[in-house]
């Protein structure tokens, strides 16, 4: 199967779903489509609330495409590559509608950034987190502001520094990443349906004003995340990172 981004609106609830065959590791074209779909949903009068989800059962999102990462040859290419998740996070931030995240499985790198950026994350107990960037010689620079905003500097630092350790869903809930954690996908989906139905009948103006307040202080993120993408775009060209990528590809 090819990757995709698709949306479906019913009773004011806009469900946006993304998928890519390699454990939902997203290439630039999927990230671009996702950012555009979120932006459009935010301007669509029929949309009252948004559910962001991925296809599959085991992995919500395992970050950006490793194949594209390995192909980067210049700082300009690196900037473009790492700007992918920046565009999606900023689209979520600026969207005037509440976005509920359906986190059914593991989140790695940029996937942690998405889980942090949504306004209300509902997960299963299989939804583990890992910020693996340091292990290949870069860092979670682009997603860092979203993750730190949601769980605080200490918890973000722990994730970023111990880049090979998984943190379980209970840890994520205690730190504030997940609003709810359920023992099954069925229970998770029941909770998402309940909340999304409630929000679809709530005041759009009140929710838009609430979202402005909740994201106060992030107005500079368009520039900030681009600056962060440039840092990763420079580091990815290092001999250390090239060697780490070669070792990773040899294992696959």
Notes on the protein architecture:
By secondary structure, this protein is α/β, with parallel strands linked by helices. It has a single domain (4-186), classed as Alpha-Beta Complex (2-enoyl-CoA Hydratase, Chain A, domain 1), CATH 3.90.226.10. Helix content is 51%, strand content 16%. It is built from 11 helices and 9 strands. The protein has helices at 28-43, 66-70, 75-94, 110-117, 144-151, 153-161, 169-175, 185-200, 204-214, 221-235, 239-251, and strands at residues 4-10, 13-19, 49-54, 59-61, 99-103, 106-108, 120-124, 129-130, 180-182. Strands 1-2-3-5-7-9 form a 6-stranded mixed β-sheet, sandwiched between helices. A 3-stranded parallel β-sheet has the order 4-6-8. β1 (4-10) and β2 (13-19) form a beta hairpin. α1 (28-43) packs parallel to α3 (75-94), α3 (75-94) packs parallel to α4 and α4 crosses α5 (144-151). The longest helix is centred in the middle third of the chain and has 20 residues, at 75-94. The radius of gyration is 17 Å and the shape is globular. The model has no long low-confidence stretch (mean pLDDT 96).
CATH class placement: Alpha Beta
Give the oligomeric state.
single chain
Instruction: Write the H/E string, N to C.
Output: EEHEEHHEEHEEHHHEHHHH
* Main pleated sheet: 6 strands, mixed
What spatial order of strands do you see in the largest sheet? Answer: 1-2-3-5-7-9
Task: Kindly name the structural category.
Answer: alpha/beta
Regions with little confidence, pLDDT below 50 for 5+ residues: none
Tell me, what's the shape? globular
Number of domains: 1
CATH architecture group name: Alpha-Beta Complex
Helix share, percent: 40-55%
Estimated radius of gyration: 17 Å
Strand content: 15-25%
CATH level-four homologous superfamily name = 2-enoyl-CoA Hydratase, Chain A, domain 1
In whole angstroms, the N-to-C terminal distance is: 20 Å
What's the overall average pLDDT, rounded? 96
Q: How many β-strand stretches?
A: 9
């Amino acid at each position: 199967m090819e990757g995709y981004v698709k949306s479906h609106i019913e009773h004011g609830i806009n469900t946006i779903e993304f998928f890519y065959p390699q454990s939902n590791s997203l290439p630039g074209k999927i990230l671009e489509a996702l950012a555009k779909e979120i932006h459009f949903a935010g301007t669509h009068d029929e949309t009252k609330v948004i559910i962001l989800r991925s296809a599959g059962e085991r992995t919500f999102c395992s970050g950006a495409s490793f194949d594209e990462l390995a192909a980067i040859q210049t700082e300009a290419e690196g900037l473009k590559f790492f700007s992918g998740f920046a565009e999606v996070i900023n689209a979520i931030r600026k969207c005037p509608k509440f976005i509920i995240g359906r986190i059914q499985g593991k989140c790695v790198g940029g996937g942690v950034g998405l889980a942090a950026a949504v306004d209300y994350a509902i997960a299963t107990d299989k939804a583990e987190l890992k910020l693996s960037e340091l292990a290949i010689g870069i860092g979670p620079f682009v997603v860092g502001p979203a993750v730190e905003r949601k769980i605080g500097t200490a918890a973000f630092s722990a994730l970023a520094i111990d880049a090979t350790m998984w943190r379980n869903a209970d840890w994520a809930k205690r730190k504030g990443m997940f609003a709810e954690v359920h023992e099954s996908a069925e229970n998770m989906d029941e909770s998402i349906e309940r909340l999304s139905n409630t929000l679809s009948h709530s005041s759009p103006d009140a929710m838009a004003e609430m979202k402005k307040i909740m994201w106060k202080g992030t107005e500079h993120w368009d520039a900030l995340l681009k600056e962060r993408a440039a840092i990763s775009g420079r580091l990815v060209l290092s001999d250390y990172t090239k060697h780490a990528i070669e070792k990773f590809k040899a294992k696959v």
